[in-house]
Every structure is written in C-alpha cells, then in structure tokens.
C-alpha cells in the first residue's frame, strides 16, 4: 500500500545548503522546505530546501542518483509507489502534495524524451485547440486559432495547417520539445521543469534551447533546469542547487557557485577534465573504411536520402569522432557500418574485406568484429535477466563459447570495466546509469571486437560519471588495440577520445582532419559552431 504524505513542518534553522535568506523568501513563487523522500530501505531526498521567484531559472545539478528527478516529481505532486514524502511544497501560495497536486496547467514538465509527454495518436492541432478551449471556454474557434498560432510562433514552430495536422512522431526531437513548451504556455503555466533538455543535442540546438529558456524567464515564468550540461547552466541559470546523495550540499547565485564552488562535490562536478595522455606513435594502417556510401530512409512510399557519397578510413587502434547537427546522418552512418541500416549503396570494409550491407548476411566472426554501444544503455538490456548473463551472451553466440566459458568471460570483463561482481548479478533496473554504461561496454567486448561504435554513449551522464566512462573507453582502446568510432555532440567527449574528426551536414562530409586541428583551428563555419567553445558561456548571467 502506497503511503505518501506532505507534512508541513516548522521553519528549520538556516543551513549552509540553502542560499541564505532566499531559502524561504517571502516573495517566492515556489517554496520548498525540508523535502524528504524515502523508501523502505533508503533515502532518496534528504531535507532539501529552496525557493524560486517568478522569472528566475534555478539549475539543479548533481551526479546520477543524487535525487534531482525525485525532487522534480515531488514538485509535480506525482505518486511514486513505495515512496514516502515529508516536508512542505508551496506553489503560488497553495500547498502541493500527492493528494493535492498543482492545478492542471500550472506546472509544465519537459521530460528528457519529450515525445513521451505528447499524445501519440492525436494530431498536434487538435490537442492545442483543446488546451486553448479549456483556458477560454467562451472563445470562438477563430479566436482559439489565433491564440494557438501566436503560441506556436513564440516557440518558433510553424503555424500552417499542414504542421497542425501532423502527429508527434513526425516531428524532430527539438520540435517535440518546443511543442511541450507550447502546451505549457497555452495552459498559462507559472513554473516549467526541464529535465535534461539538451541531452544528445548538438551545440547549435543547445544554443536554441538556452534562448528558449531565457525567453520563458523573461516572460515571468519560473524555470527549474535539471541538467548535466554545464554549458547550458552557465548560459541561463540565476541560481544553482547542488544535490549529492539526496542532500543539498551547496546553493547560491550561479555566478558565485560556478566561480568559487565551496563543497568538494561541486568542485568535482565543475572540474575541467584532465588532459588526455599523448597518443602512441604507430604506423596508420587502415582497418575500417567506408567508400562512396549513400543511404536513405523510407518515408511512406518514398525514399529520402540521408547520406551521400561518404568516404572515410580509420586506422587500427585509432578513434574517429563523427559530429554534426541533429539529423545530419551521424547515427545512420554508424548503423550502416554495423549492418543495421540495409538501405544503402557503397562499401564498408574491414581489414580490406568488404562487409555485407546487412548484419543478417554477415558471418559470426564479422558480427563479433564490429560491436555497437547504444546511447540508451538501459533500453539495450533485457529488463528481466541478470546483467551478468547478458554480458556473456555474445561470447556464446558469436565465439561458440560454452556456458562456463561465457560466464568466465563475463566475470573477467566485469573486472576490466570496474563493475562489482555482485552488482552484475542484479537486473538492469537495480543499476545506476553509469553502471549500465560500464556493463554495456563489457557486453560489447565479449565478442572480441576489433571496432567499437559508441553512439552518444555518455549522453545524460553527470560530469564525474562521464569522465570515468571516457577514461575507461580510452584505456580499452589502447590496451586492446580497438578502433573506436564515436558519435557525439559533446565537445569534451570528442576532445578526450578522438584522433580524427569527420563533420557531417545534411548527409555530406563537409570537413575532416586531425582532432587537434579541428578543435582549435577549424576554418569551416559549421565545425567552429559545433566544436569551438564560446567565451560568452564562460560565466553565468545575473539575469536571463
């Protein structure tokens, strides 16, 4: 039986984890006091207090599992089975509990996968008109149409009839995100919670998200940003709250926290990653090559070109980073190399041997030679089987290992990727994001690959966890002489791993070269926009 409560408690004495007098500011739109969330055996959130005024942006940062999402769910008044809440939440003077959530439309929530917040089988326009009708029951259809059009224009979405007749799955991720924000604007939300809005997005899209959040704050909407993206936090946040193991360990104005972090955990989150060790000098013998590769997606009865005459080569033991804006063809290229995208022409070769276009026609030794590590590590595992069993499976299927040999391989690889043996006996839902990424790497290594394809492998991870994964990946590449192809929007990932960079735009290679040259001295405008650090994001603004 679920037991959730929200018990008002006396104001606690000031604590170092709050922003001084702001912790219970009388003019705050949102007041959170001593919020705690517990299960039968652990504390998820431990006495967190903060406040937020209208038109301000609060960035909540912390390592994976620090309590960010649990705090956000409490603000929404969500019922989470097995979780007990204590403390108090007040929004616009009204208490928020699981029994008394915010009034419909008061709080907008933009999830990490925005499509999950949209009705999958209702047209965009029908939902927008329904929200407008609920807000103004007496308004004419024409008036509602003008309101809907004005709201779409505010979030830079088309207003024509063709767009309104689309379904959510026909939109890009960025468009889905802006549509969720449009829903919140139509419903006159006073608070918007954005959960990792730039995960897996390129630098140009990230800038657009920053501009959108800034625009909302200027319109008087309070924004809570849950993010590992420090570039975004620096660009938009007024205030920062740092969570560690469920507790607020530091908070204050963004300029102060970013410039002089006091708590050790904050310092770790904000620390500049150490420089990558110098590459070992060795002859560049090409292992993986792509020649005149073109690929298409089937869109209804038509084919839409997504890659055109792509050529590239990667030497054994080297790392190639493929970068580009969202929709440029990066993942399609990776899937073609792995044999997961059959609609293509051209040639993919490994050690001079041409590979079949689709993995169904590749023999086991070729399947094992190229392994794919997906962005969503959790979704790539069977939720009902222990992780250790899944790690050993490629050894059985692709290397004819016996069950005992596969189990031994799995145990060895667990040690190699730094994952505790007892942890891997659990099912995937009991592992953290960082643990699952390590398990995914171990599973990919079980077939003895020569090429590892990592598609946004560290997206959505906090800086500490991400650095651990990148260091591990670089060590594996060096020790096992792996050729690595990295698909990433993250400059830090590219800088840490890549020897060579290829830039895609609309399915065409527009720039390529040594990593150091493109990271620091690129001439192509797209390369500069995607990979060069903007000095303007080095400090946080006092007001968005």
From TrEMBL:
Pfam families, alphabetized: ABC_tran
InterPro entries: AAA+_ATPase, ABC_transp_ATP-bind, ABC_transporter-like_ATP-bd, P-loop_NTPase
Alphabetized SUPFAM superfamilies for the sequence: P-loop containing nucleoside triphosphate hydrolases
PROSITE patterns tied to this protein: ABC_TRANSPORTER_2
Chain spans, region Disordered: 1-22
Gene Ontology biological process terms from the UniProt entry: transmembrane transport
The entry's keywords: ATP-binding, Nucleotide-binding, Transport
Gene3D superfamilies listed in its UniProt record: P-loop containing nucleotide triphosphate hydrolases (3.40.50.300)
Top-rank taxon: Bacteria
Any one GO molecular function term: ATP hydrolysis activity
ABC transporter domain location: 30-270, 288-531
Family (UniProt): Belongs to the ABC transporter superfamily.
Protein name stated in the entry: ABC transporter ATP-binding protein
Organism annotation: Verrucosispora sioxanthis
Source organism phylogeny: Bacteria, Bacillati, Actinomycetota, Actinomycetes, Micromonosporales
């Amino acid at each position: 039986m679920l037991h959730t409560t929200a018990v008002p408690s006396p104001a606690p004495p000031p604590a170092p984890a709050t922003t001084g007098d702001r912790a219970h500011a009388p003019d705050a739109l949102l007041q959170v006091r001593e919020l705690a969330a517990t299960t039968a055996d652990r504390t998820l959130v431990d006495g967190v207090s903060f406040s937020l005024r209208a038109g301000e942006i609060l960035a909540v940062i912390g390592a994976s599992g620090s309590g960010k999402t649990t705090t956000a769910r409490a603000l929404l008044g969500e019922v989470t089975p097995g979780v007990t809440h204590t403390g108090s939440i007040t929004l616009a003077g009204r208490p928020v509990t699981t029994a008394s959530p915010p009034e419909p439309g008061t709080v907008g929530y933009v999830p990490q996968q925005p499509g999950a917040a949209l009705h999958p089988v209702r047209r965009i326009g029908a939902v927008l008109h329904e929200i407008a009708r609920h807000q103004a029951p007496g308004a004419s259809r024409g008036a509602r149409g003008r309101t809907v059009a004005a709201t779409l224009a505010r979030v830079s979405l088309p207003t024509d009839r063709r767009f309104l007749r689309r379904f959510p799955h026909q939109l890009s991720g960025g468009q889905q995100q802006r549509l969720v924000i449009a829903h919140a604007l139509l419903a006159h939300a006073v608070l918007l919670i954005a959960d990792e809005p730039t995960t897996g997005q390129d630098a140009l899209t990230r800038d657009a998200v920053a501009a959108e959040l800034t625009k909302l704050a200027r319109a008087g909407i309070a924004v809570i940003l849950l993010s590992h993206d420090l570039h975004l936090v620096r660009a938009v946040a007024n205030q920062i709250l740092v969570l560690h193991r469920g507790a607020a360990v530091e908070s204050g104005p963004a300029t102060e926290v970013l410039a002089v972090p006091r708590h050790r955990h904050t310092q770790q989150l904000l620390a500049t990653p150490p420089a990558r060790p110098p590459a070992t000098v060795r002859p560049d013998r090409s292992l993986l090559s792509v020649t005149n590769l073109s690929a298409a997606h089937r869109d209804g009865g038509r084919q839409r070109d997504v890659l055109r005459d792509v050529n590239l080569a990667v030497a054994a033991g080297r790392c190639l980073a493929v970068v580009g804006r969202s929709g440029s063809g990066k993942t399609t290229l990776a899937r073609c190399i792995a044999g997961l995208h059959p609609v293509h022409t051209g040639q993919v070769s490994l050690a001079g041997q041409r590979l079949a276009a689709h993995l169904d026609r590749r023999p086991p030794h070729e399947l094992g030679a190229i392994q794919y590590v997906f962005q969503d590590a959790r979704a790539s595992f069977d939720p009902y089987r222990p992780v250790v069993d899944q790690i050993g499976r490629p050894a059985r299927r692709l290397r004819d290992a016996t069950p005992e040999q596969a189990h031994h391989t799995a145990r060895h690889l667990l040690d190699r990727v730094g994952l505790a043996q007892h942890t891997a006996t659990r099912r995937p839902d009991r592992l953290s994001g960082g643990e699952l990424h390590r398990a995914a790497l171990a599973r990919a290594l079980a077939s003895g690959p020569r090429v590892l394809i990592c598609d946004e492998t560290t997206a959505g991870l906090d800086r500490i966890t991400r650095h651990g994964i990148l260091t591990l990946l670089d060590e594996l590449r060096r020790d096992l002489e792996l050729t690595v192809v990295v698909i990433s929007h993250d400059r830090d990932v590219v800088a840490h791993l890549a020897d060579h960079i290829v830039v895609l735009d609309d399915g065409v290679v527009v720039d390529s070269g040594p990593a150091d040259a493109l990271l620091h001295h690129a001439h192509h405008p797209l390369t500069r926009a995607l990979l060069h650090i903007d000095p303007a994001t080095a400090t946080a603004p006092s007001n968005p």
